[in-house]
Amino acid sequence: TVGAVACDAQGNLAAATSTGGMTAKAPGRIGDTPIIGAGTYADNKTCAVSGTGHGEVFIRFTAAAEIAARMRHAGESLETAATHVVMEDLGKNDGSGGLIAVDAQGHIVMPFNCEGMYRGMVNENADFETFIYSE
Amino acid sequence: MTRFSLAVHGGAGTINKATLTPELEVRYHEGLRTALRAGHAILKDGGSAMDAVTAAVCALEDEPLFNAGRGAVFTSEGVQEMDAAVMDGKTREAGAVGGIFGPRNPILAARAVMESTEHVMLIGPNALQVARNADLPFEEAPYFFTQSRWDALQSTLAMRATGQVDDDPARRHG
Question: How far apart are CA B144 and CA A31, in angstroms?
Fold first, then answer.
């Protein structure tokens, strides 16, 4: 699964996710990627999210929308909300994986609960950074 | 003006330090940077977040190392099915496609659903028709074939045939 989230100079957010699914998956199986609120979500008032991992668990926990809900209703920061969803909701319920997310101030978080996640980020200063493991 | 920013992820199957060679690591990093450059070029010129994420994901779909578009994995029946979605935080408009094969960039098919229909998700022939109506490029099966994905399918099927159970959670990753 691949994905991107962005905050533009006007403070607008967007998310995009694309996947081939799991190797040897059952034909017709759909994971979280195209399910709005599970693997893909964006709302200018909270955050944009793109997920990757064990899709069925992301769907059951509506992972992406849950981060936005925690920010909206509990007043949590993006980092707190995303970390909770990935490490607690997903991580303690067989939901291996991670996500990338950005808020309307351009803050980026990229939490994951597995060995690594191919990921990268860039800001207006053109500071390009890419990672695989927990650097 | 808000500070702009962009993040990407590029799933490529199980990450195993024992088998990930330094040469392969370099290629993964470069694939991610190519996607970041595509999105950054749009954002630095004042472009929209939607255009930036679409461009970044297209770059990842075009890179066979990653499991999407050109590098999509195979189903148990040896075919490829692709899913994609976009969502615009400004308007809450969204578009998604499921189980499609043919469009070079499934993310553009998802965006076409968002921009040219009243629906959020389409699957099957109608999803492909929306992509055709949007004049998106299509590719044949050889474009999407990668030997490593095919080999991964064969090893998984062989493992299943012998009743082996692999509890590696990363096998369930997209």
Answer: 20
Q: Quick check: helix, strand or coil at residue B145? A: coil
Please say whether the beta carbons of A63 and A89 come within 8 A.
yes
> Could you tell me which of B41, B5, B56, B86 has the C-alpha nearest to residue A11?
B5
Chain B hits for A15, CB-CB cut-off 8 Å, are 53, 85-87, 89
ipTM: 0.97
Residue B170 has pLDDT above 90, yes or no: no
Q: How confident is the model at residue B167 (pLDDT cuts 50, 70, 90)?
A: low
Q: At what angle do helices B22-44 and B49-62 cross, to 10 degrees?
A: 150
- Contact call for residues B96 and A30 (beta carbons, < 8 A): no
Is B80 in the A-facing interface, judged by CB distances under 8 Å?
Answer: yes
Do B81 and A11 lie within an 8 Å CB cutoff? no
Nearest CB among B2, B7, B31 relative to A110 is that of: B7
Residues of B in contact with A44 (CB under 8 A): 89-90
- Provide the residue type at A119 as one letter: R
- The pLDDT tens digits for A71-111 are 999 999 999 999 999 999 999 999 999 999 999 999 999 99
**Residues facing A100 on adjacent strands:** A50
Provide the 3-class DSSP secondary structure of residue A129: strand
For residue B138, the cross-strand partners are B103
Phi, then psi, of A49 in degrees rounded to 5 = -135, 140
Closest by CA to A39, choosing from A87, A98, A94, A84, is A98
Q: Answer positive or negative: Cα dihedral of B112, B117, B120, B122.
A: negative
Residue B20 pLDDT grade (very low, low, confident, very high; cuts 50, 70, 90): confident
